[in-house]
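Our consortium's second objective concerns turning raw sequence data into structural hypotheses that experimental partners can test. To show how far this objective has progressed, the report includes one record in full. It was chosen at random from the queue rather than selected for favorable results. The single chain below, 311 residues long, was entered without modification.
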Amino acid sequence: MEVCMNKKYCLVTPCRNEAAHLRQNIETVKNQTVSPALWVIVDDGSTDGSLEILQEAAKKHPFIKVVQKQDRGHRSVGPGVIETFNFGLSKINLDDFDYICKLDADLLLPVRYFEKVIGKMEQDPYLGNYSGKVYFQHPNGQLQSEHLGDEVAAGQAKFYRVQCFKDIGGFARIVGWDGIDGHLCRMKGWVALSEENEETKIIEMRSMGSSDQNIWKGRMRWGRGKYYMGSSLHYLLATSLYRMFTKPYLVGGVGILSGYLSAWLQREERYGGPEFHRFLRKFENQCLLFGKNKTCREYNKRIRTEITSRP
């Protein structure tokens, strides 16, 4: 823990109308065994009392800095979230910190979460982006896994080594940003990873993909994001089939496929160039052949073998 205490991390939290979850979220960060050096919370035009909660918290906790962003008039999942995150990022000097984390405002974390995450990253100089696994908490307290693959850190709590974050150029301002960044990490010689551990279990108080309108719209958006990223149709079909057998049953997978096909029929723009698409599709094809987790382990092993030093 002494090593962790010497490392400075900054949280940046986009916040819009999160009054129902904010107090618990603030409490979960306040109780961490290793506190953030700074927590920038960006109020993105809240109308539900969120700003008042944030201002009250900032008076009590010196590490909280509340900044206000002009209201765009509506919630914008994906590009809007990253735009808000980047607004908060513009208020700090990244070089002042060892780690940077995008943290959602509707999460609950174990008290040693950041201690454990920093400890893991300090032990592994190749680990650029890391998180625990995410579970949605139903009103009755039951936890449901969000089935996060090992190849990427949770979008809700992206914890980055600052050098790695700089190397990938930050987050893409589009739906699918939280998958694109993991592939960019591997392209740049960094490991992106999430692991199952009770001391790093992330509890989400609002189901993934339901924050903007409803589950169907969320899954459609997910599919469009996979198209934008550059995923192949055969990989998307496999993903959709898998998601049909997880909650919300059937509708989740059908929604993802519908969103992808809609973007494909409209010939929407795709992210990156040929090099990125080749890298992505090679990875996806290996996932289909050998399984995602095994493929992830092989890529990470290669990164650690081929790259012998870090600055």
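The partners drew two points from this record. The first helix runs from residue 2 to 5. The chain has two domains: 2-204, 215-265. Both points have been shared with the crystallography group to help prioritize constructs.
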